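User: Sequence in, structure out. Go.
Assistant: Echoing your sequence, followed by the structure tokens.
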Amino acid sequence: MGEIANVTKLNIVITDDQPIFCEGLSKLVSSWPRAGKVTEALGGCALLELLKVSQWDIVILDVDMPEMNGVETLKVIRELYPDQKVLILTQIEDEVTLKELIRLGVSGFILKNIRFSELSKALDMIAEGSEYFTASITSVFYRLLLNQEEATKKIIELNDREIEILKCTCMQLSVEETAEKLFLSVSSVKKYKMSLLDKTGSKNTVGLVRFALKQGIVKLADI
């Protein structure tokens, strides 16, 4: 599937077991400025059949579905299409389920009761190669991270600019927003983020947030 940040129009598939909800969300997503082809898959099995024959830039995936739920579906996606961008759309805030979804790797979490403006922001950030987590999910997610085994005490020195970039990342600012805030070019911000990933041994934005919290660079209340 590869990176999607530079693609003008993105093809999106919406996966839910409720036809009316799926149809309504499809119409909303189609109004997103970067939307290309938008289609619906009624359940996990239907989604997997669709992925066999066509590529999709973003999969919007419900968790609570009969026959094959979101966790089971995501497990198969990760085995067959490890780079697929997946945005979880759910009503579930259960820590056990969220922990498993985090382990499998997702591009974001949003709840079904959000406004379209937040969904649009989530899609924008995922399109740019970032992750997006709605506020209530973020609180649960951070608590899970902080309850995990403490990382090995290792001094990692960051310069002032790297710390600024890290703080912006924790605030879920996009690369463009960070560049504007810090009066830097977009390419410079991308280079700093790559350096941060390398220095901290993080795989993605989630790892950077975890590092920042554990090192006391940011506090949960500040995010």
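User: And one key feature?
Assistant: The beta strands are 10-15, 35-41, 58-62, 85-90, 108-111, 132-133.
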